[in-house]
Write a structure and sequence with these properties.
This protein has helices spanning 11-20, 36-43, 70-77, 84-97, 176-186, 201-208, 221-228, 303-324, 353-364, 383-393, and strands at 25-27, 50-52, 62-64, 103-105, 113-115, 136-137, 141-145, 152-156, 159-163, 166-169, 191-197, 233-235, 244-245, 250-264, 267-268, 274-275, 278-290, 296-298, 328-333, 341-346, 370-375, 400-407, 419-427. It has 455 residues and is α+β, with helices and mostly antiparallel strands. It has 2 domains: 11-303, Pnp Oxidase, Chain A (Roll); 325-431, UbiD C-terminal domain-like (3-Layer(aba) Sandwich). α4 (84-97) crosses α8 (303-324). The protein is globular and about 75 Å long. The chain starts with 10 loop residues before the first helix and ends in a 28-residue tail after the last strand. Residues 16-84 form the 3-octaprenyl-4-hydroxybenzoate carboxy-lyase-like N-terminal domain. It holds the Pfam family UbiD. Belongs to the UbiD family. This is 2,5-furandicarboxylate decarboxylase 1. Residues 105-303 form the 3-octaprenyl-4-hydroxybenzoate carboxy-lyase-like Rift-related domain.
């Protein structure tokens, strides 16, 4: 993949691409970033990206919806919806074989303007859901360095504004950033980071890649470089020893403080529920750099998060699952369930392979709660087809794999004391395939060959 050749390595280039293909909604009426902006976005969720041109209290427009339509995501990458995970899988595999180092420069678009007197209120950071604890950064990519090796890591975290230069953020217990932070905190040191807003799709994919695809000793910027077809350009930060993305719209520099916790939340998470309010980690901003005419990017929790995470996680996990069970042909997070329900397609050659596939998926994806395995004649991108397979091919008495007391995902309200039950569902036809399971088919015709009205 060479997005550089297609001139699609920048948010501004994306907007031009969307305009040319009639895939951009513009809201010209002034909107309030507190609740109103997200309220409009929710009404249009899943359609086209939206550019809010006039945002109350700020001079910067806001882009939302960049990731909520998989077909548009596929267009950006020059592929199809069904091939999207395989394209990403191939790119990640190539990255492992020949990592590409980023290029570091002193100046770039993201530091055309430098603000050392930080005031986060100047940014149009939306307050999304009615029960949220405040305004949240939801789409910004964090760059940090391993305190011992210097290897860079990319990640995305919800970050709630709590003051002029202060935010509270959630760190995942199994994430690399948490690992970095714990080692820095043990030395009594802050962990320096840059928070990069308004970046391109490859960087988001790299930041969302699971640990199974992106080991802690590899610089995840290489995934983005591989997808772009050229090294990612970084710029030196003004106040911290961590680089920033050169073509970001905004960069917030700062540090996660040691031994300090402050209240964060509630926040409407991808689960559709509010994550609880609790003392969490504190980020102190030390500088903001930006473009002269930047566009602020936000993500609406829902389809955008499911697509962004599901696309990245499935690409990385497929390689690992397929290596353990070669009969696995594709995987997909069921719509509405990300990251909890994974559908696995298998070309079953041996009875029992479906159970191996379930266990491989549970190992590859720590947060998956349920795995449904189906045959190759089932469309894994269709919830209707998957439901049909479960209803007509799963014998509940013997085709369910129940794993109690497994480690759960803290954002899911069903988790109690960090535990939940994981479930494997075998919706495959038993071997040898009895004729009673042969699917009904119709002759394939081309509708353009017929004179049809009203279609």
């Amino acid at each position: 993949m060479d997005l550089g050749e297609r001139n699609l390595t920048d948010i501004n280039q994306y907007l031009a691409f969307f305009e040319a293909n009639n895939n951009l909604i513009r809201v010209k009426t002034e909107v309030d970033p507190k609740l109103e902006l997200a309220g409009i976005a929710k009404k249009l969720e899943g359609t086209k990206p939206i550019l809010f041109e006039r945002v109350k209290g700020s001079e910067y427009p806001v882009l939302i919806g960049l990731y909520w339509n998989r077909h548009i995501l596929a267009d950006i990458l020059g592929t199809t919806n069904s091939q999207l995970p395989f394209v990403l899988q191939n790119e990640i595999k190539q990255w492992h074989l020949s990592p590409m180092e980023p290029v570091v420069r002193k100046q770039g678009p993201a530091n055309e303007v430098i603000e050392l007197d930080v005031d986060l209120s100047t940014l149009p950071i939306p307050h999304h859901a009615e029960g949220d604890g405040g305004s949240y950064l939801t789409s910004s990519v964090v760059i940090a360095k391993d305190p011992d090796t210097g290897v860079r890591n990319l990640s995305i975290h919800r970050m709630m504004v709590t003051g002029k230069n202060r935010l509270t953020l959630l760190l995942e217990e199994l994430g690399h950033l948490m690992d970095y932070y714990k080692r820095a905190e043990a030395k009594g040191e802050a962990l320096e980071i840059t928070v990069n807003n308004g970046i391109d799709l490859p960087l988001t994919v790299a930041a969302a890649a699971p640990a199974s695809a992106a080991p802690i000793d590899m610089d995840e910027l290489g995934i983005a470089s591989q997808m772009r077809g050229e090294p990612v350009e970084l710029i030196e930060a003004q106040t911290v020893a961590v680089e920033a993305i050169a073509n970001a719209q905004f960069v917030i520099e700062g540090r996660i403080l040691p031994e300090v916790r402050e209240i964060e939340g509630p926040y409407a998470e991808v689960t559709g529920y509010y994550a609880e309010q609790a003392p969490r980690w504190v980020f102190e901003a030390t500088a903001i750099t930006r473009r002269k005419n930047p566009i602020f990017h936000s993500i609406l929790s829902g389809k955008e998060v499911r697509n962004a995470y599901g696309m990245s996680a499935s690409a990385g996990a497929f390689t690992k699952i397929n290596a353990l069970v070669p009969e696995v042909t594709a995987i997909h997070f069921a719509d509405g369930s990300v990251p909890y329900h994974l559908v696995v397609q298998i070309d079953k050659k041996h009875e029992g392979s479906q159970r191996n596939a379930m266990m491989a998926a549970f190992v590859a994806l720590a947060f998956v709660k349920a795995v449904t395995v189906v045959d190759t004649d089932v469309d894994i991108y269709s919830s209707e087809d998957v439901d049909w397979a479960v209803a007509t091919r799963c014998c509940y008495e013997k085709d369910l794999l129940v794993i109690p007391d497994a480690i759960g995902h803290r954002l899911n309200p069903m988790v109690e004391e960090d535990k939940w039950t994981r479930l494997g569902i075998d919706a495959t036809v038993p071997l040898p395939r009895p004729d009673k399971f042969r699917r009904a088919t119709n002759v394939d015709v081309e509708l353009s060959d017929y004179q049809i009205e009203g279609v």
